[in-house]
Amino acid sequence: MLHACMFPLSLCRLFAVQEFLPGPRPDPKVQRRLMKHITKVICEQTGFILEEKLRTILSPMINTERNLIHIDAVLHVKNAFASFLSL
User: Fold this and answer.
1) In whole angstroms, how large is the CA radius of gyration of the chain?
2) Is residue 49 part of a domain?
3) Cα–Cα distance between 47 and 37 in angstroms, integer?
């Protein structure tokens, strides 16, 4: 089972709350909840990118695992598309 703190470090840095809020560091629980919410929204908005085969494989997994793999697939598509455009 994956935990919220196991998201890729690049995503954690990308959505790090402390970079946007001046003052003391926010509560780690709040950061984890925010990270879960952000990944959920990304997964909901990019569901059309996943193939049906991958959706079938992901269906028995828990939400955290499913979202992590979903975001990984979305980032691979983004990188492939960026590589294609740079040709």
Assistant:
1) 15
2) yes
3) 15
Distance CA 65, CA 70 (A): 8
* Domain assignment present for 57: yes
Please state the pTM of the whole predicted model.
0.57
Domain coverage including residue 71? 7-85
Give the total number of structural domains in the chain: 1
Tokens 């926010």 sit on residue: 26
Nearest to 66 by CA among 85, 79, 80, 47: 47
Provide the Cα torsion 25, 7, 73, 67; round to 10°.
-90
Would residue 2 count as lying in a domain? no
What confidence tens digit (pLDDT) does each residue in 14-38 have?
Answer: 555 445 556 777 788 988 898 888 8
